[in-house]
Design goal:
Blueprint (H helix, E strand, L loop, with lengths): L5 E5 L12 H13 L4 E6 L8 E3 L5 H4 L5 E5 L2 H4 L6 E5 L11 E2 L4 E2 L9 E5 L2 H11 L6 E2 L6 H4 L10 E4 L9 H8 L8 E6 L9 H11 L4 E5 L4 H9 L4 E3 L9 H8 L4 E3 L14 E2 L5 H13 L6 H7 L2 H17 L1
Helix pairs in contact: 1-12, 6-10
GO molecular function: glycosyltransferase activity
InterPro entries: Glyco_trans_1
Protein name: Glycosyltransferase family 4 protein
Length: 341
Amino acid sequence: MTRPLRIGFVGTELAPLRPSAGGLERLVTGWATALSRQFATTCISRFDDASPGTRYNTTAPLAQLVEGCDVVVVNNRPAWANEIDLPVVLVLHNTVEAWALPGWDATRHQLTTPTVMGPNVVVAAVSSYLARHVQEQLGLAALPVVLPPFIDPAFADGPRWQPNENSLLFPNRLLTKKGVLETIAAIKRVSDPRATVVFLENFAPWSQPTGEHLTLLEHINACARCRLEPRIEASATLANRMLGAQAVLAPSIHPEGLGLVPLEALALGIPTIISSMGGLGELARYGATVVEPIDDAGFAAAIEESTQKPPAIDVDGVRRDFGLRRSAEILAASLQEAILR
């Protein structure tokens, strides 16, 4: 009897490999769990997260941490993929500035030193937009595999939208790039005085608010039509909170790899307002409303339209295209490709 393939899943150094830590961490642990039915899987982190069954070491070389694995899944860290001689699937979730490459110049917003991926690395990206971006930034001969993220069962299998209040929900992290200030400007222009926006105090992966968070909190507290609620970690609780809102707002002003928050809202059938930045625009096909966030009048008009005449959402399409089974099957095929190289 042959032994099962041993797969190591490597998280980043930013947050513990727990589903509650953030979207990337939830995907990594979810893939590991799904593939554990067929393969031997382990999660490996360069962060002391004290999770049962997770190896961690902040000083040992990554090649040492993955000893005993047959193939490794590295997330968002191209340089780490090149530290490993084993077959590797590199999954990229965000654009280049999030990859922690030594050649990244934040001032000029460009790579000053090319990064060449080894022949043992199969590259995947979470959206078609991101695949094109990755090909350009890493100089790949072919487009990466498109590996769609999966929707948490709390959203994929949950009930469908039945609003019971006048508020709109902004469940994304409180960051300038997520469109917090643009949302505040838009809600001030909505004609219905009862319309309000609820922001969640979501600072992940930080445990305490940074200076940026504190500034945004001041702006939210200064707006009579905005209010704050505590961050919701449990997926089922967040899904229930979303279901009561009139709409979900995710108007990022910087490119997203895809955008899990609006994807989860669409899986519940909730009117969802997004920007077209990066992979977010790919969600328009499922019924998401696309706005230009800096056009606060247009943004406000979209809010009014979505609440007065909610758009049809292709819930079945979202749940089909972003199901765990499909996502895990594509990842498994990429792992087999890496092994055969």
